[in-house]
Amino acid sequence: MPVENMTLAPFYAGNRNPFNYAKVEQIARDISTAWLTLDEITQQLNLFQDESQDSYLESLELATRMAIEDYLGMAVFPTQYRTYYANLGVYNTQWYLDLPEVSPGAAGVTINKVEVYTTSNTVPVTLATTAYSYDPTGNRVILNALPNNLNQNVENPIVVTYTQNANFNAQYPVIKQAGLLLLTHLYNNRSNTAEVKLKEIPFGVAQLLRPYKPLVM
């Protein structure tokens, strides 16, 4: 039975909020494949037969796509992360490892590898795939047993590398229209739009995207 109760051990809570990872790094992201086509963009901006700005429009398209991905927590194209977890000392106990930056849904997650620092503090050991499983209902990796030989000189000795797969929602017309609206805003405003910090992305974009933004409890 996994330990996940304040009465059983310190620092655990049944609601998993906040999550139990120490830090997360984005280590791979597609920054070349187009999401919005050049034809869709020129139609949106009424730039018919004008190819003089194509390279600039392509850079705006990339910025738009990445902003939409980050806002929704959803990968338009596969994105890879590395997440670190601290050692809380409950050895030989089944252990939950929460995954950040994961949208629930049919896209799913691929666990690339789970590593632990043991004798070395520079080279981690890769665990066999039989030593853990992935729980898609909770977006987390479950270690069969927390190793009892974790290196005490490494602050975060457990490392999970995973890929958030491309989400089919990214092809929904409403989401692509939100992307076109945001791209239009960036095209028409090539400097800061206000001296004060904007509280949300431009009117219309958030409304279109709201139903697809996961609510994490």
Structural description of this entry:
The protein is an alpha+beta fold. It has two domains: 23-27 and 78-166, Immunoglobulin-like; 32-75 and 172-212. The protein contains four helices and eight strands; from the N terminus they run E-H-H-E-E-E-E-E-E-E-H-H. The chain has helices at 38-45, 54-72, 173-188, 205-209, and strands at 23-29, 79-85, 95-98, 109-116, 125-126, 132-135, 140-143, 158-164. The two termini are 23 Å apart. The relative contact order is 0.19.
Shape: elongated
Output mean pLDDT. 84
Q: Report the biggest beta sheet as strand number plus sense, adding barrel if it closes.
A: 5 strands, antiparallel
Q: Classify the secondary structure makeup into a structural class.
A: alpha+beta
Q: Count all strands and give the number.
A: 8
How far is the N terminus from the C terminus?
Answer: 23 Å
How much beta, percentage-wise?
Answer: 15-25%
